Amino acid sequence: MSKLILDYLKSGVESFPDSNYGEGFRCSAYLKDGTYLPCVMLRKCGPIVELAIRRFEQEKKGKGIFRSGNGYESIVKSFVASGNRVNHYDIERVQPSRFAIPLALLKKIEGETTMGWTGFVFEMQDGKLFSYGTSFGVEFFGLPDGYGFENVVAVHNHAYISPTGALSPLAVGMGAQPDGYDRSLVFRERPYFVCYYDA
């Protein structure tokens, strides 16, 4: 493991639990060529290697999760040809990511509003309200200019900001959403890179 990653992990950064891929540590990173990656998840190699081996063993026993096509090919494709990755040896510097939502705040967000979508509103210290939403990822979220997650004083679940600026409810379940609810206007989950390291 590179010393800079080890030093970052020892700095007391909050771990992010994941039952499939093992705990991760969120950061931002500068690569050796100066490229800035605002959202990076540091993870040990072991859990993903064990998951791949487990998937192959399940496939051998006829208990694979891929029901159609070539199961082995699907497993290889899933582990080799998908996801965003960055090599630890290409990283020059790591630091906290401003887009890493604290777990204490994340736990205040309730389950799905509708199937595959969770809508909520963050209320800031100055009273401003911002609509948020996610279809899947919760590791990193966008932020309005001039704000950080430390500015959030309340979470309004299953809600959005109407075109008139009012805090408004979203329908929970299969009901139709209000006409003024435009998902393209909400702050969303952010894509990120994974950097695997050996412990």
How are the SSEs ordered, and which strands pair?
Elements: H1 3-10, E1 15-16, E2 24-31, E3 36-44, H2 45-60, H3 71-80, E4 91-95, H4 103-106, E5 118-124, E6 129-134, E7 152-157, E8 159-161, E9 167-169, E10 193-197
Parallel strand pairs: 3-10
Antiparallel strand pairs: 1-2, 2-3, 2-4, 5-6, 5-7, 8-9
Helix pairs in contact: 2-3
Poorly predicted regions: none
Helix content: 10-25%
Taking all Cα atoms into account, the compactness measure Rg is 20 Å
Shape: globular
Based on the model shown, name its key terms.
single chain; alpha+beta; five-stranded mixed sheet; three-stranded antiparallel sheet; 4 helices; 10 strands; 19% helix; globular
Report on the structure:
- By secondary structure, the chain is of the alpha+beta class.
- Helices cover 19% and strands 27% of the residues.
- The chain is built from 4 helices and 10 strands; from the N terminus they run αβββααβαββββββ.
- Strands 1, 2, 3, 4 and 10 form a 5-stranded mixed beta sheet that branches.
- Helix 2 (45-60) packs antiparallel against helix 3.
- The longest helix is centred in the first third of the chain and has 16 residues, at 45-60.
- The model has no long low-confidence stretch (mean pLDDT 92).
Summarize the structure.
The protein has 199 residues and is of the alpha+beta class. The protein is 19% helix and 27% strand. The chain has four helices and ten strands.
